[in-house]
Amino acid sequence: MNLAHNLERSTFFFPDRPAVRQDGMELTFRQLNEQANKIAAGLCRMGVKPGDFIGLCTPNSAEWISFYFGVLKTGAVAVTLSGMLTGDELALLVNHSKPRFIYIDPSKLGTLESLRASSGIEKIICPGGDLTVSELMDKESGTFPTVDRDRRATAAILYTGGTTGIPKGVMLPHEYISTAAYLVANFERNKETDRALCFMPFNHVFGQIHIMNGTIFSAGCVEVLPAFDLDKILEALESGRITKFYAVPTIYIRLLSLKDLEKKLGNLRYSFSAAASLAGEVVKQWKERTGLTIAESYGMTEGMPVTYNHYYRHVVGSVGQAVHGMEVQIRDKHGNQVAEGQEGEICVRGPNVMEGYLNNPEATQAAFWEGGWYRSGDIGIFDSAGYLYIVDRLKDMIITGGENVYPREVEEVLYTFSAVEECAVIGVPDREWGERVMACIVTKEGCDLVPEEVKTFLKTRLSGFKVPKDYISVKDLPKSATGKILKRQLREKFVK
């Protein structure tokens, strides 16, 4: 098995269809596959062997996709790093993963040169480095015999966002990514005529596996943007080229603030949200404004997709039912499965689950219950129809006066208050209550935050202990590169 066979299969059936588009330039599947073959041949000529680590650390681009599949074709492992890493962050991850070769953005050349001795880097691939991608492909033919790998051999290593501490390198097998790509294509009813807009970073599971690999699997076209750019996103949508749109909740919230939104979407047929829980009020408003449902699934870097909220019988507020081949259980803190309707930790098992964390056997062991059940760290509950509901993250639960408060429940209600554009609820230390509930709120344009009005509103909809005691007006909320609200940073800011 080799994940690169998905690209080759789409090339076989649709060689002349567009595979990637960027800045008006398109590559057909034949051209993309030939570029990947040349890169693979060039890497092998320089001594790359199956199982070697090859780093990728650049913004999204068509060349990134060619390089990624070139690495996979050799049987090597793609270590995908964020193009936004600072020098210290990059040094930490490069010294941890120790790639033989690394493909980087030229702006990071100085940092990488200083890491050669400590990390064992042999070749830096970028303009000004040891060679460029063009030079790597030079004189190579457009054919290459893809190396077969064991289905559980690692294809890619993705680093977790590090919102709770030092990032961990998640080892994803060929079987994991191939299965995930198939499931995405199946549940989203992908077609070869689809064009998916991708501005989510390719180092992240959402951009790399869900959007890019899911689209390549089904022979659609990936329209690439290096990063979020609202003007370019709207231009692409209004052009009528884009049929599938992927974003995170904060971007949907921002789009809903635009006038005549429904006229700006062109031929969009599908919209999807990931990376963080989406408030039901946002789903409702998007449907009312555009006529489209925002689909959701549930998953994480260590395993995805776990569930999908379907085209049919879509249930707002749920993340859907378990996908084919994936087992999902709700367990208590002792690892015992709980009864239907009871909440507990979501645990999953299936082919699209990681092998473990790179060079971290202790974290790997702690992440699994006996029998290969991955512990998600999320609190969930099943209804009688098998629909899963995410209650909150275990680490985000607030205990105030001995009562459990799940921030997401409070946030869902806050989003229905007219002045609230975006919000995050956190727990802060309190001498009397242990923790008290705090709401950090971004107000809509032209609106002011009046705490007593918000508190009065919440008291009619929530139990008293769940109603925040503090209301903080902020201009924006700290977010990761993928749009997740960084509650750890909020707590650090407001805890003295």
Walk me through this protein's architecture.
By secondary structure, the protein is of the alpha/beta class. Among the domains are: 5-211, Rossmann fold; 397-494, ANL, C-terminal domain (GMP Synthetase, Chain A, domain 3, 2-Layer Sandwich). It is 30% helix and 26% strand. It contains 15 helices and 26 strands. The strands form five sheets. It has a nine-stranded mixed beta sheet with strand order 2-1-10-9-11-12-13-14-15. Helix 4 packs parallel to helix 5 (109-119), helix 7 crosses helix 8 (205-217) and helix 10 packs across helix 11 (280-290). 48% of the residues are buried. The model has no long low-confidence stretch (mean pLDDT 92).
Task: Describe how the helices and strands are arranged.
Elements: H1 5-13, E1 18-22, E2 25-28, H2 29-45, E3 53-57, H3 62-73, E4 77-80, H4 87-97, E5 101-104, H5 109-119, E6 123-125, H6 133-137, E7 154-159, E8 169-173, H7 174-187, E9 195-198, H8 205-217, E10 221-224, H9 230-238, E11 244-247, H10 249-256, E12 270-273, H11 280-290, E13 294-300, E14 303-308, E15 321-322, E16 327-331, E17 344-349, E18 356-357, H12 361-366, E19 368-369, E20 373-382, E21 388-393, E22 398-400, E23 403-405, H13 407-414, E24 420-430, E25 434-443, H14 451-459, E26 470-473, H15 487-494
Parallel strand pairs: 1-10, 3-4, 3-5, 4-7, 5-6, 9-10, 9-11, 11-12, 12-13, 25-26
Antiparallel strand pairs: 1-2, 7-8, 8-18, 13-14, 14-15, 16-17, 17-20, 19-20, 20-21, 22-23, 24-25
Helix pairs in contact: 2-3, 4-5, 7-8, 10-11
